[in-house]
Amino acid sequence: MRKYKYKVIKKISRKSAFINGNSKYAIDYIKNENVCAPLGSLGVLVFNTKKAAKYFRNNWKDKKDLIVIKVIPTGRGKRIHYVSPARNSKGLDNFYKNNSLLQPAPGDTMGYPGVFVVD
Question: Would you say residue 7 has pLDDT above 60?
Fold first, then answer.
């Protein structure tokens, strides 16, 4: 049996809720497709439980514009403890280059090399 994970994305663009949609790190989460994390990144960040994903979504100002989708991880996952507060390419490049400006990751966050988008 496959274990589902959960991703919070923008309802209209189907890109990650956190990353700026114009960033080179932004991924399109298209139903029934495999997506891969950008090389050198923390991976595709997902939540282990739907409850954790909904909690994350509900803490956004524009939560009505976000949805929680089911994904199936591909590859080996790792627990994510810290993330960058940056949401754009330049800030994320700096984070990955220097591991600077860390903030705690939302609870129950995992990173995977890729995911299959279920819905």
Answer: yes
